[in-house]
Amino acid sequence: MCELLGMSANTPTDICFSFSGLVQRGGKTGPHRDGWGIAFYEGRAFREFKDSQASVKSDIAHFVKKLPIKSHVVISHIRQANSGKVCLENTHPFSRELWGRSWVFAHNGQLKGFKKKPLGFYKPIGSTDSEHAFCWILDQVRSAYPEPPKNPRLIWKLLHDLCLEVDEYGIFNMLFSDSRFLYVYCSSKLCWITRKAPFGKARLKDSDFVIDFTEHTTSKDVVTVISTEPLTGDENWETMKKGEMLVFQKGKAVYHK
Amino acid sequence: MCELLGMSANTPTDICFSFSGLVQRGGKTGPHRDGWGIAFYEGRAFREFKDSQASVKSDIAHFVKKLPIKSHVVISHIRQANSGKVCLENTHPFSRELWGRSWVFAHNGQLKGFKKKPLGFYKPIGSTDSEHAFCWILDQVRSAYPEPPKNPRLIWKLLHDLCLEVDEYGIFNMLFSDSRFLYVYCSSKLCWITRKAPFGKARLKDSDFVIDFTEHTTSKDVVTVISTEPLTGDENWETMKKGEMLVFQKGKAVYHK
Known about the structure:
Chain A is an alpha+beta fold. Chain A has four helices and 15 strands.
């Protein structure tokens, strides 16, 4: 199994606090030693850091933890391998281009037999069931909409249906983005929290790190963080249910079913 | 204009020495202040670092300069913008997937009117003529070979013909890779050097950095470095001619026309 971390914000925000908690779970407070990755959107493009070694031992992870990269959508993953060997090809997040947009994807869970599903346009570079599912979903979106529909709700609904279909093969908790929206689907375990004014303090569960959000925010900021398990012990995280899909834009849920 | 840096090696090799020289040209010894990027292949995947600010001022560039990431194919670029504004979307290298392989591309030069060429499968995320040319080339390769041909020479020849066609629109010095081969096309300015046993010392032209390659290599290592201008002053770099294409595999030229 793996752990996921996502963020959607209405103003470019750094994720140093949350990422510091996640990194601990990559070999110290958690068993996810088989690689980690993080993608930070900036406009329609993204910046990515990844490594096939444990995040607690990774020089790059420690550098990123301290680097205040500000972004409106972030997707991160720490891996405990179950499908595909430990190597960079199999390290999440995965990305592809569709309609001149960068799509980024990370998955937690296992999908039995999904790799038998035929693919069309997009082909996996590595050997994980996760990347196969990502390619399959993008294939379906591309076939249904060779050009992007004017109403983005059509995509939200289609993605929800596709996630439900993939979910039948096992466990499919996932984060997905096209730079504008952050799509979150829960198969077994995901939770989220929206932070907005009045901001307070929070303490990480996985390390001795307390943050006072009032020092880092303005009263207009809205920031949602999604995680496999709550990252803080003194805030109220919402727990998602199986089959539930949320779409966030600028920190706010715009689709919730 | 911009500057390019590439490497092909028969054993995973770090590029710290050459990249240290290039970084200086990104705002200090050269005027390329509008972003930089570097992609390091590891197997079929790659690791990428990029920034839309000057490399001499970039925290990420200084971190990468010291990080001994070992790779068999590296593509790097520093940008002086001429087509497309300064932002991450327009920062080289660009990448796409074809045949389950990661293709990475960086370009130096300008292409007048090329953005009028219609595209098919691949769409640019940013607004540069460079990314448009990259998408167009991959479209042609994909159309000619929906599946990869058994004989890679067919691709080398096709890529050479495509580069000659793009070159008619202006200046098109480029580096391109699919993880196995490093493709190098010269339109106006590119040079290269192959380092192998007996190794010696070299001094960077752009900073006070001397390396003794004998301390970092074995007698079997073969490493080729490609650059817009020679990075060292005390070695013999080969200068490429207009229309010339080189394909490197494991540090050695396998196609040269």
